């Protein structure tokens, strides 16, 4: 994140929501600060025999509504403030979806692309060794995020089970299917956003065939491209950390995914099927109907918001639009389906995984999709109605919706409670 204190930007949204409700000041005071953020230094043995250290964090932001839940990010630019901000968003996201969770998040400050597979496994296990005492299926439940995946979740679940001396799959979600992972968790983040857009399409005034630009081509971005293309829409531009490609008549999604699976950039497809290279920074201003940020925070800001051509922004990334850009886009008439709703399909299927782990009975893919779709539509519709009734943006409506649930839970704990699981 670019700001010195990104949590301040996030709290702007809390204040805005609170201004539309009659909320006790104690509730706001509780939600303004992370309950606990633990910082550790992980030491691992590198393949060449040397030892190297990495800073890592786990934040349990708020556990009023249940065990804290949220992914672990491996990124060279991660900071404590970023982790706390991401955990704040998880608190609201879980409340938006009415999941029985609070919000958490973790990170290791590392570029995982510079580690061998064995080094990556040692680092992932070291993270769990350091944090096992604050994790647990009823306490804090990690999952994948940027540059982490099911393989890493599998190592982490294995390490935790070894430490506690019993199989404990429900401590982590997003695991490989062979270790108790859920069907449908792989594309859940994108699928939730996809169901939401389909459900609100006529309210949003969207046409039958949409032109879509996607920023970031990892888990969220690739699955979104596949889902939208298979629904008859054209993906006209995608980007990754190295650059972007554009094709007005629609990119070849299979070729792009093959390039990424082979460890290459989307730029490797330039020249194939009419793919043209584009500066990554220009993706935001591409001519399209739907812009899908699916990379990092603060990518749409005061300096590039005015270039947006899309009528809809679907935030699969967490925090991709700054509050300044929000104001500009609102004036331009651009609708934003905000992160705490639009990308909540991921944590929702994580919840399904946790439920299946606890009951030791596993659902078919169709059941996962049916349940995910029902929750996305129910909460999406409720938030849409709040936006219309109060005359506010969908983002503010989502915060209002979540804040009401959080306030009820905080008050139900009692005025003398400082509940800590
Ligand atoms: N994986 C999940 O289940 C969930 C992910 N998210 C959010 O979605 C976003 C993407 O996460 P994943 O797809 O899981 O990560 P990922 O690690 O699979 O992919 C990240 C992608 O972003 C690209 N990227 C990084 N910096 C970029 C830049 N400056 N410009 C363009 N592209 C850039 C990378 O090249 C990569 O293609 C993050 O904000 C994450 O927090 C949100 C909810 C759930
Ligand atoms: O699947 C989960 O538990 C959390 C995913 C996540 O970190 C997010 O929604 O940002």
From TrEMBL:
Coiled-coil zones: none
Q: What family is this protein classified in?
A: Belongs to the Glu/Leu/Phe/Val dehydrogenases family.
Residue stretches making up the Glutamate/phenylalanine/leucine/valine/L-tryptophan dehydrogenase C-terminal domain: 182-414
Query: Please, which domain of life does this record's source organism belong to?
Result: Bacteria
Q: Which Pfam families match?
A: ELFV_dehydrog (PF00208), ELFV_dehydrog_N (PF02812)
Q: What is this protein called?
A: Glutamate dehydrogenase
Q: Name the Gene3D superfamilies on file.
A: Leucine Dehydrogenase, chain A, domain 1, NAD(P)-binding Rossmann-like Domain
Instruction: Extract the CDD domains matched here.
Output: NAD_bind_1_Glu_DH
What parts of the sequence cross the membrane? Answer: none
Q: What GO MF terms are annotated?
A: oxidoreductase activity
Give the record's keywords alphabetically: Oxidoreductase
Q: Does the keyword Glycoprotein apply?
A: no
Entry keyword Ribonucleoprotein? no
């Amino acid at each position: 994140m670019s700001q010195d204190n990104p949590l301040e930007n996030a709290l702007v949204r809390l204040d805005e929501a609170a201004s539309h409700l009659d909320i006790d000041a104690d509730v706001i005071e509780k939600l303004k600060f992370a309950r606990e953020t633990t910082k550790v230094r992980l030491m691992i043995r590198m393949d060449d025999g040397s030892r190297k250290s990495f800073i890592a964090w786990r934040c349990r932001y708020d556990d009023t509504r249940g065990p804290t839940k949220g992914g672990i990010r491996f990124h060279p630019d991660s900071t404590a403030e970023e982790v706390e901000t991401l955990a704040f968003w998880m608190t609201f996201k879980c409340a938006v979806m009415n999941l029985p969770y609070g919000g958490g998040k973790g990170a290791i400050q590392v570029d995982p692309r510079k580690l061998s597979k064995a080094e990556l496994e040692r680092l992932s296990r070291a993270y769990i060794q350091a944090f096992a005492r604050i994790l647990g299926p009823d306490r804090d439940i990690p999952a994948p995020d940027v540059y982490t995946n099911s393989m890493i979740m599998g190592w982490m679940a294995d390490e935790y089970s070894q430490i506690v001396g019993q199989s404990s799959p429900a401590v982590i979600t997003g695991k490989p299917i062979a270790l108790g992972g859920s069907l449908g968790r792989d594309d859940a983040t994108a699928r939730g956003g996809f169901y939401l857009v389909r459900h609100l399409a006529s309210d949003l005034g969207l046409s039958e065939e949409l032109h879509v630009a996607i920023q970031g081509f990892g888990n969220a971005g690739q699955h979104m491209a596949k889902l939208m293309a298979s629904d008859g829409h054209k993906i006209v531009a995608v980007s990754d950390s190295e650059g972007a490609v554009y094709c007005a008549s629609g990119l070849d999604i299979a070729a792009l995914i093959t390039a990424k699976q082979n460890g290459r950039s989307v730029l490797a497809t330039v020249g194939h099927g009419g793919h043209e290279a584009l500066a990554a920074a220009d993706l935001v201003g591409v001519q399209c109907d739907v812009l899908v940020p699916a990379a990092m925070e603060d990518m749409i800001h005061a300096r590039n918001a005015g270039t947006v051509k899309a009528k809809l922004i679907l935030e699969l990334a967490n925090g991709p639009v700054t509050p300044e850009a929000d104001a500009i886009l609102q004036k331009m008439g651009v609708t934003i389906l905000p992160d705490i709703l639009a990308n909540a399909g991921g944590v929702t299927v994580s919840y399904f995984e946790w439920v299946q782990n606890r009951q030791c009975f596993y659902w078919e893919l169709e059941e996962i999709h049916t349940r995910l779709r029902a929750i996305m539509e129910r909460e999406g519709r409720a938030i849409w109605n709040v936006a219309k009734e109060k005359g506010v943006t969908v983002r503010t409506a989502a915060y209002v919706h979540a804040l009401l649930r959080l306030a009820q839970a905080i008050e139900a704990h009692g005025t003398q409670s400082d509940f800590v699981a």
